[in-house]
C-alpha cells in the first residue's frame, strides 16, 4: 500500500521518455467533406466489431459496468450518471490520483495477450500524464481478465479492484483494448455528449426498445468535453450500426450533409481524445534526473501534493513547470524544510537546472499548483 501522510501520497518514479507538453488541437467544424474521419488524423475504420455489439443487460451502452441494475428505468439511470459525472468528464472522486493507474493481469492471459495490453498502455504515452504501472500493494487498481462476458470496464476509479474484461477473441484488437482503458480512466462515449443532437441523428426504429437507454445523452451540467468540438473520429464513438436489429441499417449517423461519413474507429486515440485526456489530467510539472530533461522522471498533475518515493531521493537535478503553474520542492517530507519554488509566468523557457545549486538532489516532497 502506498505511504500516506494525512492527504499526502507517495509519487513513484518512472523510467520513460518525457511526456508531451503541447495539447493536441482539433480542426473546427464544419469538417472537410472529403475526409471520412474528421478530427482523427485520417484513420480508417477498424475491421473488427465494435465492443458495443454486446447486449448483456448489466452493461450500460454495451460495455460500461456498474451503472445498470435489474429494473432500472431510463430516469434512474440518468440519476446514477449525474452522481458520477459532476463538473467534468467524470467527478473528481473517480479520477486516478496524479494520473497513475495501477494494474494486474490475470494469469490466464497468454504472452501474446499480455503484449497487446502493454502496447495499449503505451498508447496513453501520447497524453501528457496518464501512465500505467504494475501494482505492488496499491488498493485501487484495474484487473485485466478475459471472461466470456464481452468487453467492458467501469468509468473512472471506483475504489479497490475493478475489472477490465476483454473476451477472446473479439475484444483483443488494439483499439478496443485502448477504448476500455479510456473508460477506466474516466471517459464516457462521445455520442452521449449533451450537444450530440447537433451532429448526429438516431434511428431507434432499428433498435430494440430494451436497448433505447443505450442512446441517452448527458446534460451540460453533468459532462463537459474540455471545449473540444464533436469528434466523429473519436475512439469513444459508436459505429453506425450500434445495437442494430438489422446490421444493414444504421442506428446512428452524422446529420446532413455529412450523413455518409464513417463514424467511430477502433484504431487509436484521436487528437481530440488526447486533448480531452490532457484536460482531465492536466500536467503541472516534471522533475528530471538530469538537466537535459532525460532519464528517470516524476510528473505531477495540476494541484498535486505529494511526498516523493524514497527510491527517488537524491536523484532530481532539473524541473519543467507548465506556463501558469508553480512547483515547490521541499528538502523534507510532508512539505517541511527548505522550500524552493519555480514559477512559469513568462519567458522563453520553463525548464530549470539544479546542477550546482544547494537543492540539487534534495527533493523529498513537492507541491505543483496552477
From TrEMBL:
Record bears the keyword Nucleotidyltransferase: no
Under InterPro entries, the record lists: Astacin-like_dom (IPR034035), MetalloPept_cat_dom_sf (IPR024079), Peptidase_M12A (IPR001506), Peptidase_Metallo (IPR006026)
Its EC number is 3.4.24.-
Which residues belong to any copy of the Peptidase M12A domain?
87-285
Keyword Metal-binding part of the UniProt annotation: yes
Regions annotated as coiled coil: none
Q: Which cofactor does it need?
A: Zn(2+)
Q: Short name of one Pfam family for this protein? A: Astacin
Any GO MF annotation of the entry: metalloendopeptidase activity
Query: What residue stretch is flagged as signal peptide?
Result: 1-18
GO biological process terms held by the UniProt record: proteolysis
In this protein, the active site sits at 180
Q: How is the cofactor bound, in the record's words? A: Binds 1 zinc ion per subunit.
Q: Kindly provide the name given to this protein in its UniProt entry.
A: Metalloendopeptidase
Organism (species): Hypsibius exemplaris
Amino acid at each position: 500500500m502506498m505511504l500516506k501522510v494525512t492527504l499526502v501520497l507517495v509519487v513513484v518514479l518512472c523510467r520513460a521518455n518525457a511526456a508531451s507538453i503541447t495539447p493536441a488541437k482539433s480542426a473546427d467544424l464544419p469538417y472537410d467533406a472529403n475526409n471520412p474521419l474528421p478530427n482523427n488524423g485520417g484513420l480508417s475504420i477498424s475491421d473488427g466489431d465494435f465492443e458495443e455489439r454486446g447486449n448483456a443487460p448489466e452493461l450500460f451502452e454495451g460495455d460500461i459496468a456498474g451503472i445498470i441494475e435489474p429494473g432500472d428505468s431510463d430516469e434512474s439511470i440518468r440519476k446514477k450518471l449525474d452522481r458520477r459525472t459532476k463538473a467534468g468528464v467524470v467527478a473528481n472522486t473517480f479520477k486516478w490520483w496524479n494520473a497513475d493507474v495501477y494494474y494486474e493481469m490475470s494469469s490466464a492471459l497468454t504472452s501474446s495477450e499480455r503484449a497487446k495490453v502493454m502496447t495499449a498502455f503505451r498508447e496513453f504515452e501520447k497524453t501528457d500524464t496518464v501512465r500505467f504501472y504494475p501494482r505492488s500493494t496499491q488498493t485501487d487498481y484495474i484487473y485485466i481478465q478475459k471472461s466470456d462476458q464481452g468487453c467492458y470496464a467501469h468509468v473512472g476509479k471506483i475504489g479497490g479492484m475493478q475489472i477490465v474484461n476483454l473476451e477472446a477473441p473479439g475484444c483483443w484488437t488494439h483499439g478496443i483494448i485502448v477504448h476500455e482503458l479510456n473508460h477506466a480512466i474516466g471517459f464516457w462515449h462521445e455520442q452521449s455528449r449533451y450537444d450530440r443532437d447537433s451532429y448526429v441523428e438516431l434511428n431507434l426504429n432499428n433498435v430494440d426498445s430494451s436497448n433505447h437507454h443505450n442512446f441517452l445523452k448527458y446534460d451540460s451540467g453533468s459532462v463537459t468535453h474540455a471545449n473540444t468540438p464533436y469528434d466523429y473520429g473519436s475512439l469513444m464513438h459508436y459505429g453506425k450500426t450500434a445495437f442494430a436489429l438489422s446490421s444493414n441499417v444504421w442506428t446512428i449517423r452524422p446529420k446532413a450533409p455529412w450523413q455518409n461519413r464513417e463514424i467511430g474507429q477502433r484504431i487509436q486515440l484521436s487528437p481530440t481524445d488526447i486533448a480531452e485526456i490532457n484536460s482531465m489530467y492536466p500536467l503541472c510539472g516534471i522533475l528530471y534526473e538530469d538537466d537535459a530533461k532525460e532519464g528517470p522522471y516524476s510528473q505531477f498533475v495540476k494541484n498535486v501534493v505529494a511526498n516523493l518515493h524514497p527510491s527517488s531521493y537524491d536523484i532530481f537535478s532539473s524541473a519543467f513547470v507548465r506556463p501558469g503553474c508553480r512547483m515547490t520542492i521541499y528538502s523534507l517530507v510532508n512539505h517541511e524544510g527548505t522550500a524552493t519554488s519555480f514559477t512559469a509566468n513568462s519567458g522563453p523557457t520553463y525548464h530549470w537546472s539544479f546542477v550546482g545549486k544547494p537543492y540539487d538532489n534534495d527533493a523529498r516532497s513537492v507541491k505543483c499548483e496552477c
